[in-house]
Amino acid sequence: MTYNNKGNSAYVNNQILTASPKKLIEILYEAGIKHSKLAIFHLDQGNLQEINTQLIKVQDIVLELKYAVAPTPDSDVPDQLISLYDFMYNQLLLANTEKNKERVELVKKMLEELLETWLVL
Prior knowledge:
Elements: H1 2-17, H2 21-45, H3 48-67, H4 77-98, H5 101-120
Helix pairs in contact: 2-3, 2-5, 3-4, 4-5
């Protein structure tokens, strides 16, 4: 079992190290969605420690996405995207303190829509 985890970890690390910037954003969106789904699962199960662990992972991912936004002088899109990430982060904080499934589902849906849009670019 340990061998498989190490092999999977090496594969993921290699995928990240060799990915283009566009692919890295895609990986972040996918990871955010995955951990959101895990948080929802653990909310349904009532596993408080895992809820917290998964939501913190999503929070970290949303912050990484926010910090990856490059400012553009002739566009307000980056500022709007940063505001969107701030909203998502705050929803995740509230979801974690309130153990609120609907807030997590909202963020998951937003991440899914952003991923879908990102893949079209």
